[in-house]
Specification:
The chain is of the alpha+beta class. About 30% of the residues lie in helices and about 30% in strands. The protein contains 5 helices and 7 strands, in the order βααβββαβαββα. It has helices at about 10-20, 35-45, 95-110, 125-130, 175-180, and strands at about 1-5, 50-55, 60-70, 80-85, 115-120, 135-145, 150-160. The longest helix has 15 residues, at about 95-110. It is globular. The two termini are about 20 Å apart.
Length: about 180
């Protein structure tokens, strides 16, 4: 399996994976976004943050990305993370490898807090995040309405860099990659 950065040309494959979850409580979107909207998301999120895809035998099997968690400047050290896998890639080891790479990039960008928002019931995702070092710290009870029911959201956090003292300023993914070159 290879992990690489997403491009706008990956949008159809990512949309196909995401479409597997649209009629479930796993995402709060109620209709499948357009292909152009997905291209915009890749372009927008990957400007400053990592947006990764896993590829096996020439086929995209999953994707993970991060973006700024909140808009106010004091929150600039926080990022929200997301991962989706094709259903046939679950339990294959793809998720941990993809997410570990994402978290490593965030750590090197000087992100302090990585957040994951997981809807209930999605115990598989909760356990996955806990295995990746996240801990649950809040539940937004009945915060979304979809599929004719109220759905709660569990917030999880993983501390990637020390919280003591003044943190190092956030770097964009472009700065991290330029350093590697």
């Amino acid at each position: 399996m290879d992990i690489r950065f997403a491009t706008e040309e990956d949008a159809p494959a990512l949309l196909e994976i995401y479409g597997q979850y649209i009629d479930s409580p796993i995402t709060f979107e109620t209709s499948l976004p357009s292909l152009e909207d997905f291209r915009w998301r890749i372009r927008e999120f990957s400007r400053d943050y990592p947006y990764l895809v896993s590829v096996q035998d020439g086929r995209i099997t999953g994707y993970a990305y991060a973006h700024r968690a909140f808009t106010r400047d004091a929150y600039r050290f926080d990022a929200e993370t997301t991962i989706y896998l094709s259903r046939d890639s679950q339990h294959s080891g793809t998720g941990p490898m993809l997410y570990a790479k994402l978290l490593d990039y965030l750590r090197r960008m000087n992100v302090v807090n990585a957040y994951a928002l997981v809807t209930e019931p999605n115990r598989q995702s909760i356990y996955f995040h806990q295995r990746m070092g996240f801990r649950a710290f809040a539940t937004f009870q009945d915060s979304g309405y979809k599929l004719d029911r109220w759905i709660s959201v569990i917030w999880l956090v993983k501390v990637l860099n020390p919280r003591e003292g003044r943190p190092a300023e956030i770097r964009s993914i472009r700065d991290v990659l330029a350093e590697e070159a």
